[in-house]
Amino acid sequence: MPLSNVEKVTDYLKPKFSDDASGHDWHHLERVRRLSLYIAKQEGLTDLHSIELAALLHDVSDEKLNDNRESGQKKLENILLLLDLTDKEREKIQAVIASVSFKGGNETAITEIEAKVVRDADRLDAIGAIGIARTFAYGGSKGNPLFNPELRVRENMTIEEYRNGETSTIHHFYEKLLKLKNLMCTETGRKLAEERHAFMEGFLQQFFKEWNGQG
């Protein structure tokens, strides 16, 4: 029996992402897949195939995980050509994936519900307890300090400044993570973000209490 598209993508991606230590590993892709399917069903969607594939593939072309934008995009296109999809389906999946990234606030405006679902799922995995763990994993992989009180929180960044400017992991909460709750696109995403956002606020309160030697 031939493999389904989801099985093909899983078999291809799992070994390539299993050893990632930046918070963008196979388990992240799997969580985003599950969250995307949950949100889609809660929002009343029935055509889940493109959403599931886009969720699994959403990090393949990410600039921060590739040498450059072009090489990442080519990698994604090559995978899609291995799947049993129409040209229209491939274009739809690529459009969804292109809309996911935060890009320092320079994000793409979206209207398609599939893109809203996958974007919300990816951003939910960036907040809460797992979001905190992933943030410190990514900061460590980039050589960023836990916290540098001499740095200011950056606002209105270009994509280049967001990717490569000087920052700390704690600053990243204020530059991105704490903004995500209000950027959710679906009602389900907004509900799920509330608890995760509150957890991060509690973590930061405790972090600064300990940082300042108050307990």
Automatic annotation (TrEMBL):
Q: List the Pfam families hit by this protein, alphabetically.
A: HD
Every copy of the HD/PDEase domain together lies at 21-136
Indicate what this protein is called per its UniProt record: HD domain-containing protein
Which organism does this sequence originate in? Bacillus seohaeanensis
